[in-house]
Amino acid sequence: MESMRLLKYVAAALVLVLVxxxxxxxxxxxxxxxxxxxxxxxTISTVGFSEVVPVSTAGRIFTMLLLVAxxxxxxxxFGVLTQVAVEGSLRRIWGRRRLEKSxxxxxxxxxxxxxxxxxxxVVRELREKDMPLVVIERDPQVVADLESEDVLVLQGSATDExxxxxxxxQHARGLIVTxxxxxxxxxxxxxxxxxxxxxxxxxxxxxxxxxxxxxxxxANRVISPYRLMGKRLVNALLxxxxxxxxxxxxxxxxxxxxxxxTEVYSNSPLAGMNVRDSGIRQKLGLIIIGIxxxxxxxxxxxxxxxVISPGDTLIxxxxxxxxxxxxxxxxxKSPDL
Length: 337
Description:
The protein has 13 helices and 10 strands. It is of the alpha/beta class. A 6-stranded parallel beta sheet has the order 3-2-1-4-5-6, sandwiched between helices. A 4-stranded antiparallel beta sheet has the order 7-10-8-9. β8 (287-292) and β9 (298-300) form a beta hairpin. α1 runs antiparallel to α3 and α9 (225-238) crosses α10. The mean pLDDT is 84.
């Protein structure tokens, strides 16, 4: 920043004036170091105390030159400091307005409340998938770190409805709650559900037995990291091949495979057709492993005669490119088959 560079130059100039004045008084008046320094300080600060050593005509001429140089440097320093302060305030205001505009433009985005250890992983995964995200975080240092990574972040508490509204929760697709207290999580969920009844909310369960309370507050899903870790460790021990295959599908690997749920729209040409006649397997190479119906009922491994209805969600396994084309097909667009 140009102002900060100028401030360094002004500080260096003030130091040079102090050194020049001290050496000058020691040379002209034969004053001791401290007396010469004292004379320099009271001169450039325009305090106006009496001289501590006799000053000749040459000394007074030197004092006048020192006064002009010192006062000039001080005025410039005050001017630069004011400029730095104003620039900093304007930058914060401009940055805040730009952030608010960016968030206001978001649609179907995700909001993360709390960016601790779990939250950091959530941010990384959503960014890798190029999903729109807004983070609400209290810790100023965490906020600064996220801003340096170009993450949209609001500093504040997610328990405050105003902060949730600033995150454009009315147009959000999902809310992820990873705060460090279940009581705080319940309050956030209640506020979020009140602001957006259709919001899909996932909460992390900190204490055992609080899953029911979080669901009663309005969470669609409650995840217990410790319970999941325990199950994964056991399954990795007993079913290593299955875990390796799921890791390949879910978290990437040499094969570009994924499991995805895609909603069927009413204008889709597949709506009303059965699985066999849909041509999903033949044309896209995808395997339909389940259908979540509009009423929440899940049909695992649907038969070829199972009818695909509007509002259903097809759970498919296959290459990501094929899944993207299926999503277009289910939304009524013409896929590139």
